[in-house]
Amino acid sequence: MSNFIVGLTGGIGSGKTTVANLFADLGITLVDADIVSREVVAPGTIGLTRIAEHFGQSILHENGELNRAALRERIFSTPPEREWLNNLLHPMIRQEMLAQLKKATSPYAILVVPLLFENGLDRLVNCTLVVDISPELQTQRTMERDSVSAKQVQNIIGSQASRAEKLSKADDVIDNHGTVSALQSKVALLHNKYLKLADHT
Length: 201
Hints:
Layout: E1 4-9, H1 16-25, E2 29-32, H2 33-39, H3 46-55, H4 68-76, H5 79-103, E3 108-112, E4 127-132, H6 135-146, H7 150-159, H8 163-169, E5 172-175, H9 180-199
Parallel strand pairs: 1-3, 1-4, 2-3, 4-5
Helix pairs in contact: 6-7
């Protein structure tokens, strides 16, 4: 197991995935909360079975997969339902992430979590890395990428920890206002730093 774990986070549209993939290119194992959260509700899992029992079969697509849009709609307008879902899935996601981190063979591992601080998952890592961009650029990139309105992006940004809060809690920050090549050199520097830190754990 990689004993040294870096928690990677950043607001929507900040470029977390790009940064994570640059670390992966250097041979570092990634454990991505978004991917894990899909795995725990895949067909045949206890997570999906419990969701279908609770919300009914209308929450599933015809092929038996979870209809995320239908589920989002159900929980968005009903906080108690959202809480029920979080109470079911968060422990499962956490357990699966820890299991995947245990299997990591690289000198250190990266845990990619959009809501690292909000969900208290920074307790699982040795240090935190925030990918930072301005709210204006965040809005612009997310609108282009997801074809959503500025208002929708603002709502998502509003539900995440503020930029100032993330930056105050971060051990390291990558400023992602520049080019991908600038990003690569920043990642290379941090990679060397984390290798040294991992050596001492």
